Amino acid sequence: MNLSTISSPGVYIQELNAFSNSVVPVATAVPAFIGYTPQALYEGKSYANVAQKITSFAEFQAIYCYPDPSQPAPPAKQYSPQYYLVQQKSKPVDNDYMLINGAYYSIVPDPNTIYYLYNSIRLFYQNGGGDAYIVSIGTYGPPSLKPMNSGDQIVNSNVLLNDLMGGLTLLLNEEEPTMYICPEATLLSVADNGTLMQEMLLQCTEMQTAISVFDLIGGRNPDPIMYTNDILTFRNNTGVQGLNYGTAYYPFIGTTIMQNTDIDYTNLFGGDTTQLAPIVNPPSNPDPATAAILSNIQKPSGGLTVTQLNNALTNANAVYKSIIKHVLSDANILPPSGAMAGVITTIDSEDGVWEAPANTSIVGVSSLPIRLSESQQGNLNMDAVSGKSINAIRFFNGIGILVWGARTLDGNSLDWKYLPVRRTMTFLEQSCKLAAQAYVFQPNVKNTWEAVKAMIGSFLTSVWKQGGLQGATPSDAFSVACGLGVTMTADDILNGFMNVMVKVAVVHPAEFIVITFQQQMAVSS
Q1: Deepest in the core among 68, 116, 150, 517, taking most CB within 10 A?
Q2: What dotted CATH number matches 31-79+115-142+157-258+332-419?
């Protein structure tokens, strides 16, 4: 109440705030997924090239997935990769092959039908995901109708750098996302993938609100000896800017996200069963039951659905059953970034953003394309030249598959080499920044300074009590300074600047635990 405005006699009540403003903690685990979706339409409105927030997988399905047809028809397939069996003259070098009727067949996909976003979203929610942003940059493109060469990396010509860059640019207007994830970036060429990663790191540096979670080209089918070339290529293509805002995970993960109902004969040879028939029902050893089912597929009769025919063929033919199993296993190998977003969300919710998202399992993961040893991980974790650390996903006997690393790409920095430190500082900075906006245009005087100090101090005390800051007392954990002669000069005040200095002692993960054993001489009792 301004007393100078009172002009008539009477009794006036003036209410004073007893407490200062409080800092509302910002969300710490809100990934933004950029990629291709089955569709992007809801109630007649297009959601293509829009940063749309969702809170559940059901919302994702409603906006970005094909609607299911009326029963008794089976549910619509949201993702339908195409695979080919290519006969080889000799045993293939890699393990992606089958021995059928004495001949070697490589199982290779049509690269233009491989996409990762849909299954990455499923992995995200399977691992505890919550709020997320979806940037659909288009729908699936046409197949190439031919297999890629065995052993090559998958490059999908429908996945375009400009599309992904455009989706990334849309996030410049969104401050809530804290992770940028492009699962389909590994489907680009090496050069285009490098350009995208560098742009993501630059945008993270500019926004100061998010980190980028990267997958590595080559992590899907790594060579057991020459996989280090893929690591080197990744390090050479990430640049040197904004490394503390990036983190990477290796290798890809073998999941159980797709089930038997997701793969059938329509996923083989582009649905052309005339190419499948000689393999599962060779003329040299024909099977009448298999021939009848294949004939019914090619010339439908009796109103049987694809699911019913596929089940019949699976039960009748062991070779076909084995092929489907092999294709399903290959289709289930996915980049880990989506799953890691879910793991990070769960860790943040249960323990806090300062807890390292490591030494934990990933729900839905059953295998790895390469099992790294301790010495092999050492070269990923530390690099003397670039310092670009790569977090390993490893198998441990008797335990299973664990995330075994929590570093940023800035592995040589004592300030920013640990992912929980980077994310905790972002959390503290953004929470204090948004709370301080209430004091914009307030008088730049001691009362305002003390209010800001009390507000931030109260917030940091609560973080310290939760274990997010180290120190025996709050004064050991943080300090907040603001005032003339302390953080500001008279010129600062004249120019409208109020400078606040916050120092925090962020907790660091115990990455290396050293236990010392020493023999002791026997002593008399």
Answers
A1: 116
A2: 3.40.50.11780
